[in-house]
Write a structure and sequence with these properties.
CATH topology of one domain: Rossmann fold
Distance between the termini: 56 Å
CATH architecture of one domain: 3-Layer(aba) Sandwich
Order of helices and strands: HEHHHHEHHEHEEEEEEHEEEEEHEEHHHE
CATH superfamily of one domain: Vaccinia Virus protein VP39
Number of helices: 13
Largest sheet: 9 strands, mixed
Oligomer: single chain
Shape: globular
CATH class of one domain: Alpha Beta
């Protein structure tokens, strides 16, 4: 057992099985043994690679989007530029480098990062110090100071805890983490009412996932945008319609693993329910846009053109590397279709490239 597995086993012996959401929260955020509290998960030496680590082009195009959103907002100064779950700070650094095309944007931006991991905060500080950026950190989105805001959340919602429900022959049950006869962590079921949007009419074997934490965060984010102005961009892997599958997964050393095998030493994620996030934003008074695939979003912002500009005068190895990066970010075989982009804003805001504007003409 990992140290966290031993801690969780003791907790279960003392108080009974825990929900999948409680298990995820402990695996990722336990102060002593949590995955994000004690490891650097990103990059080739970590457990997985995110889009900002694939190529600078990703963060640069998010910077162009942020600049266009700011101009649509009327160029407020100052304004909050926030990132939720900023990883190593790579995306924010690339974003601001591209957005310096408009010096007034950089001068007006006040960078705020929502990050709970002390280790990752140190890494972000080092990354952004090299770019001449001094951010302010917060443990939760409600701690960010008031004012108009542009927010970015790349691979943030997938790491928020989920609950899982299974339609059995006897009715609905919630999946729990318990102990088997040998004392090891194991999944079990506990009778439960139907989860939201489900009923006893669903076929036996149907699996439903909910994320109350994700919904609450989106409600707070969208409610703020509706009142104080601004826009937010959520980029993650997930689905737009109500799903019916077990999407809980563990990644360790760039390979998928059993979610119960190495608690605290593997990344745990689940696919994002973008439909529920959009509904939460709408109920909070904000305006969610129809989903775009990551490939379509980056293409509309000029990914091919940016790649072409970067390869001019470069050698064959650099050219091939950029071509691989474009394919990984935007092709259906890479991240282009699995990853989706949800934009949310205050009402009455024309938000490129979701509302018909052509960023290439800006």
């Amino acid at each position: 057992m990992t140290p966290l597995a031993e801690k969780l086993a003791a907790r279960i012996r003392a108080a009974g099985p825990i929900t999948v959401a409680d298990y995820m929260a402990a695996c990722l955020g336990d102060p002593e043994h949590g995955y994000y509290m004690r490891r650097e998960p990103f990059g080739r030496d970590g457990d997985f690679i995110t889009a900002p680590e694939v190529s600078q082009m990703f963060g640069e195009l998010i910077g162009i989007w942020s600049l266009l959103a700011w101009e649509a907002m009327g160029r407020p100064a100052p304004f909050v530029l926030a990132e939720l779950g900023p990883g190593r700070g790579t995306l924010m650094g690339d974003l601001l480098r591209a957005a310096r095309l408009r010096p007034a944007f950089a001068a007006a931006a006040r960078v705020h990062l929502v990050e709970t991991s002390p280790r990752l905060r140190d890494i972000q500080a080092a990354t952004l110090a090299a770019a001449g950026i001094t951010p302010v950190w917060h443990g939760a989105i409600e701690d960010i100071p008031p004012g108009p805001m542009i927010a970015v959340a790349n691979e943030f919602f997938d790491a928020l805890p989920i609950r899982q429900f299974v339609r059995t022959a006897e009715g609905w049950a919630e999946r729990m983490v318990a102990l088997d006869d040998a004392g090891a962590l194991a999944f079990g079921l506990r009778p439960a009412p139907p989860p939201p949007g489900r009923s006893t009419a669903d076929p036996v074997g149907t699996i439903a996932e909910t994320s109350p934490v994700s919904t609450a965060i989106m409600e707070r984010l969208a409610g703020r945008l509706a009142v104080e102005g601004g826009a937010a961009l959520v980029i993650d892997y997930g689905y737009g319609d109500k799903g019916s599958a077990d999407t809980l997964q563990a990644v360790r050393r760039h390979n998928y693993d059993d979610p119960l095998a190495f608690p605290g030493e593997a990344d745990l994620t689940a696919h994002v329910d973008f439909g529920t996030l959009a509904d939460a934003a709408r109920l909070a008074g904000a305006h969610p846009r129809p989903l775009l695939s990551q490939g379509a979003f980056l293409g509309r912002l000029g990914l091919p053109e940016r790649a072409s500009s970067l390869v001019r005068g470069k050698d064959d190895a650099t050219r091939e590397g950029l071509e691989r990066a474009v394919a990984r970010l935007s092709s259906p075989q890479g991240m282009g279709e699995l990853f989706k982009v949800l934009a949310v804003s205050q009402g009455g805001l024309a938000l490129a490239p979701f509302d018909g504007d052509d960023p290439q003409k800006t």
